[in-house]
Amino acid sequence: MSHLDPYFKQVDNLQDKFIERLRDAVAIPSISSEDARRPDVMGEWLAEQIKALGGTVELRQLGKQPGREHLDLPPCLLGRYGDDPNKLNVLVYGHYDVQPAQKSDGWATDPFTLTIDEKGRMFGRGSTDDKGPVLGWLNAIEAHQKAGVELPVNLIMCFEGMEENGSEGLDDLIAAEANKFFKDVDVVCISDNYWLGTEKPCLTYGVRGCNYYALEISGPGQDLHSGVHGGVTHEPMTDLIKIMSSLVDPDGKILIDGIDDLVAPVTEQEAALYPPIAFTMDDLKESLGNDVSIWTNKEDALKHRMRYPSLSLHGIEGAFYTPGAKTVIPAKVIGKFSIRTVPNMEIDQVTKLVEKHVNEQFAKLKSKNTFKFHVVHCGKWWVEDPNHPNYTAAAKAVERVFGVKPDMTREGGSIPVTLTFQEQLGKNVLLLPMGSSTDMAHSTNEKLDKRNYIEGTKLLGAYLHYVAGEIKRS
Ligand SMILES: C[C@H](N)C(=O)N[C@@H](Cc1c[nH]cn1)C(=O)O
Ligand SMILES: [Zn+2]
Ligand SMILES: [Zn+2]
User: Where is this site: Important for catalytic activity (predicted)?
Assistant: First the structure.
């Protein structure tokens, strides 16, 4: 693979340009959950970038957002670079939408201004999730062009703008295009997750699913003064806190009857996969930012991230949350939580158990308030065969770029489209992450290290060469 050397050299030469590209992308606040800052502009910007590199692009409209019909779903970008019938067709997926972010959440810098510190940490919303990795594919095309090295595959691109919000509309598009736009796909590669630590890359062959729920409790006709009405009214927030605290205990144990019975037992063979993973409790402490792990050994910590379900409480809409001491009784509150699911938990089975549990808990309160249970969005877990040449190729690329064998991991987060591609296209799906465990995706001060971005761009390009060598078109 000597032609990788000029490619790597060009990635190094072009690094300032690639960082500017990321800066421009981060500056577009493409927040899929906010009406005012929808990701459409970002989709158009990305389309122009791909066209400028010589690719072809369509922005597919996905209709209206279910439940919020005044909003168009952000378009899904379907792109292509190269159409040589003798080359392997590699489908790459990523998302150009991001989680919400405001400086007042606790960011040290403006979330939509890429800010680089002396350690080469590039802070900005979407830097690691998932704008940096998406741009990695574009950077790889450009560095090939500048190096005069032919891209060894046809690159088929699917970049969506709704991943952080349940990938609404995407499954239908993929099903409709499985035998059209995606017809010739040979393998799938997704860069949208993270290494376990900060030094060693990994290949990921599974994700947890995510069932996201909301509990709505309303009662008084409007917000009330707690001095005037405290003690005389059923308070929605009190009801909600009681129900939310019945879902999970402080050690992370899910308290909903029947959930644990849905989890496939960990076989001896599976248990043996965890000890060799290069991960330490110090890595965990570093990524948590403090010594707050529930678990005292790495195997337990890894299993509870990759292989067991978890339930997290996310927030309460309508609650008083700003600094100060407002003595209000909120009239309506919406509590939000999600369950990360694993084999063999089925989405509907989990939802039935959750609904039964929260209804029983509310009934116990004998409250005169009104209670509504909502399913916000659900995506299923996915597990792939890591003994496929797609993974062999990625492992070789990691060794070439980083000089180590990758860890084999399952991701605790969720990427619902993995399963859709596996089922609809019947092709092997690989997760090849760029970012590290300390990137703080979804949180304040999200960042991507310059090293991960630049070496990660080399990795994505190298993977294309190795996969072209491992798999021949039939
Ligand atoms: C792992 C991926 N980068 C990611 O962040 N996925 C999200 C998907 C999601 C599910 N509900 C809302 N967003 C995640 O795991 O939270
Ligand atoms: Zn992501
Ligand atoms: Zn995300």
Answer: 225
